Amino acid sequence: MSQDAAQSTKRKWLLFMIFAPGIFLILYWASLRYNPPAADGVEMPQTYVELGERVQLDGTGYRVYQGTKLFSERVELPNNLAIAEPGRVYVGLGLEADSGKLPGEIKVIDTLGSMYAPLDVKRDVVASTFGLTNDDHDLFMFKVSSKAENFYFLIGDHKQAWRFANTYRE
């Protein structure tokens, strides 16, 4: 291999190593910019009632209720303080069932199409944060988007939901 060919090859590799990362970053930035993350695409419930109303589902009465406070951006834990990240807020709800047991999966859906599962938190933390009574009812805490207008609390596979407005939104 001649000396000119070797120099030319070195020059090409040097230019490639300089420009390739820049081109990659530009393409990566362009793909992120034009492809926003899609929502979960959950269907909105067709029938709903407001919080506090009692509903009969499969012969069992259910009531979803709030405490003195529905939304909170901070949760005081023993020896710690949890603060929701920007764009998120905590929601605390209670579920009263005649049978005393959960009928299946519990979830909250927002009007943006996202679904939220309950957080695994001790019931006394939920009760003290949201002003709920710490009795035999089930207490739930969710971390939801603060940008949605309304939320729907769903029990199991039932189509019935409890709706509550986002009063935290500014």
Please give a structural write-up.
This protein is α+β, with helices and mostly antiparallel strands and 170 residues long. It has two domains: 36 residues; 119 residues, Immunoglobulin-like. Helix content is 24%, strand content 36%. Strands 1-12-11-8-9 form a five-stranded mixed β-sheet, with no helix packed on it. Strands 2, 3, 4, 7 and 10 form a five-stranded antiparallel β-sheet that branches. The chain is elongated.
Annotation keywords:
170 residues, Immunoglobulin-like, five-stranded mixed sheet, elongated
Helix and strand topology:
Layout: H1 3-34, E1 47-50, E2 54-57, E3 60-65, E4 71-72, E5 74-77, E6 80-83, E7 88-97, E8 106-110, E9 115-116, H2 123-130, E10 138-145, E11 150-155, E12 160-165
Parallel strand pairs: 1-12
Antiparallel strand pairs: 2-3, 3-7, 4-7, 5-6, 7-10, 8-9, 8-11, 11-12
Summarize the structure.
The chain is of the alpha+beta class.
- Strand fraction band? 35-45%
Q: Could you give the distance between the termini?
A: 71 Å
Any low-confidence stretches, pLDDT <50, length ≥5?
none
CATH architecture of the largest domain: Sandwich
In N-to-C order, the SSE pattern is HEEEEEEEEEHEEE
User: With helices defined by DSSP (H or I, 4 residues minimum), what is the helix count?
Assistant: 2
Q: Could you name the CATH topology of the largest domain?
A: Immunoglobulin-like
Structural class: alpha+beta
Helix content: 10-25%
CATH hierarchy class name of the largest domain? Mainly Beta
Number of strands: 12
What is the overall shape? elongated
